[in-house]
Amino acid sequence: NAGVTQTPKFQVLKTGQSMTLQCAQDMNHEYMSWYRQDPGMGLRLIHYSVGAGITDQGEVPNGYNVSRSTTEDFPLRLLSAAPSQTSVYFCASSPWTGVYGYTFGSGTRLTVV
Amino acid sequence: GQQLNQSPQSMFIQEGEDVSMNCTSSSIFNTWLWYKQDPGEGPVLLIALYKAGELTSNGRLTAQFGITRKDSFLNISASIPSDVGIYFCAGQLAGNQFYFGTGTSLTVIP
Predict the structure, then answer these.
(1) CA-to-CA distance for A31 and A72, rounded, in angstroms?
(2) Of A9, A59, A85, A102, which sees the most CB atoms within 10 A?
(3) Cα of B9 to nearest chain A Cα, Å
C-alpha cells in the first residue's frame, strides 16, 4: 500500500516555464488537496477536490490549475512559474468524511529561478 | 483563510524534559488534529480530538481539545532525540477542510 505518491521530489524551473506536479493515491480516497508550505506560514490550501470531476479553489489558488479525471490522480499545474512559487508542495488525501485527517505525500520541493 | 496561532514558534529543550505547545483560534472548531513533520517528509497524524474537553494520549504524547473549542494543547513527556521535528495543529470547521497552524519547531538536545 503506497499511500500518497508525489513526483518529482525536487524540481528547478526558470521563470515563465510551466510544469505539472503529480499526485496519486491508492486508498480510494474521495478527497484530495494540494498545499504549499512556506517558512513561518504553515500549510496553505491551493486547490482541492471532493471527487472525480469536481475541483475547487483554496486559500492561494492564483497561478495554479488542477483537474481530477480519476479518483486516484490529482495533478497540480503551474501555468507560468514565478519566483513567488518557490515552495514545498504537499498533496494530501482522505476519505470523504475527513474526520480522521489527511494522509500526506512526502512533498515536492520546487525552486523557481 | 482561518488563522490558527501556534505557540511557541520554536523550542530548544534537553532530552528528558517535558514539552508543551498550544494552538488558538478565533473560530470554533469541530475537530482538532496534531501532526508531526520530520525533515524532508510530509506531516504524519499523531492525535485526533473530536469533542470539547477530550483528552487523548498516544504514547508519550497527550493532547486536549479546549473546552471553548477554540484551542488545543499538545504535551510530550520525557522527550527523546527522535521527537525533533515540526508539530502542526489543524482545525476543522465543517465539511472536509482543515486549517493548519504555523507550526512549532522542536529541537531536542541530547
Answers:
(1) 10
(2) A102
(3) 8
